[in-house]
Specification:
The protein is α/β, with parallel strands linked by helices. It has nine helices and 14 strands. It has helices at about 15-25, 55-70, 90-95, 140-155, 170-175, 190-200, 230-235, 240-245, 260-270; strands spanning about 5-15, 30-40, 40-50, 80-85, 100-105, 105-110, 120-125, 160, 180-185, 205-210, 220-230, 245-255, 275-280, 285-290. Strands 10-9-8-11-12-14-13 form a seven-stranded mixed beta sheet, sandwiched between helices. α4 runs parallel beside α5. About 40% of the residues are buried.
């Protein structure tokens, strides 16, 4: 009998709950998370955990989270399962869903085990580790597409990436020509993944990765700030975004459900931001806003 070295958590997901359940899986200690479409059944989230975890405790925590969503008026899934996997299977299941992805006009996102095709695109190699950001989620795709356009249009010399995760946006910016990027995250695992990916993509001379709280770090204002976070975080960070940007600079925000975009843009208007562009990818909105041209009281 195969050694049961890992657990697989499987749960059905809807578009409005996908990000929250993915974040929960990482917070519970997942080694990898994938989302897959099942013909006729919708999307399913699969997360892989070490065999040292207690399966019952894992399932209990997920069901408690879903009960909390139900109390808030959502209709969370009921099909939750935790099953054992043989040692060699979880990595294969994870890797099978992280495939090369063409993004925008010039980018190709690859996992480290893939060999890049000679198609003239700029290759960005990402191993997410336990951090969010493989370039496959709609929120990351939208940020990458807008980032490519903003850099081409404005040519910013500096950028701040708040909640960098795997470092994918910071690395893309550096590869697209931004000379100095500050990548900030409050999760040590994310910073470790970002540092490794920065080195893997040979842009360590352009990117500085910092472990810090996005709401409290201090840095000279930049002409471009990106943040692929949840809407609630964007609402909390409005004043910090204004401090982090030079007058008239560009704020690029992802991780926003389509239905949340208008209200968030209005809330950031209270901090002097003006909406410039809005892009929707797979149910997720990316907002591009212009910072106030002077100090906003």
């Amino acid at each position: 009998m195969a050694s049961l070295g890992f657990w697989e958590l499987a749960v059905g997901v809807s578009a409005d709950l996908s990000e929250g359940l993915t974040n929960l899986a990482w917070e519970l200690g997942a080694l990898g998370v994938v989302e897959e479409e099942q013909p006729g059944l919708g999307a399913r989230l699969r997360a892989f955990f070490p065999g040292t975890f207690l399966a019952g405790t894992l399932e209990t925590k997920v069901r408690a989270y879903l009960d909390g969503l139900r109390a808030l008026g959502f209709e969370p899934p009921t099909d939750v399962s935790v099953v054992p996997l043989a040692d060699e299977n979880w990595a294969d299941a994870w890797r099978a869903h992280f495939t090369p992805r063409l993004v925008g006009r010039s980018l190709l996102i690859l996992p480290p085990w893939e060999t890049p095709a000679q198609n003239g695109r700029m290759v960005i190699t990402i191993d997410p580790g336990r951090a969010f950001g493989t370039g496959h989620h709609g929120s990351t795709l939208g940020c990458l597409e807008r980032l490519e356009s903003v850099i081409e249009r404005d040519g910013p010399p500096r950028m701040i990436d708040l909640g960098t995760g795997s470092g994918i946006l910071a690395i893309a910016a550096a590869r697209l020509g931004v000379r100095a990027v500050l990548a900030v995250d409050d999760d040590p695992d994310a910073v470790a993944a970002a540092v490794a990916n920065v080195a893997r993509n040979h842009v360590a001379d352009r990117i500085r990765c910092v472990l810090a709280d996005a709401a409290r770090f201090e840095e000279a204002p930049a002409p471009l700030v990106v943040a692929n976070l949840l809407t609630a975080a964007h609402q909390r960070l409005g004043a910090q975004y204004a401090r982090a940007l030079l007058p008239g600079g560009t704020l690029l925000l992802g991780g926003i459900l389509d239905g949340e975009g208008p209200d968030l843009a209005a809330a950031l208007g209270d901090h002097g931001f003006a909406l410039r562009e809005s892009l929707s990818v797979e149910g997720w909105t990316t907002l591009e806003l212009r910072a106030p041209l002077h100090d906003h009281a």
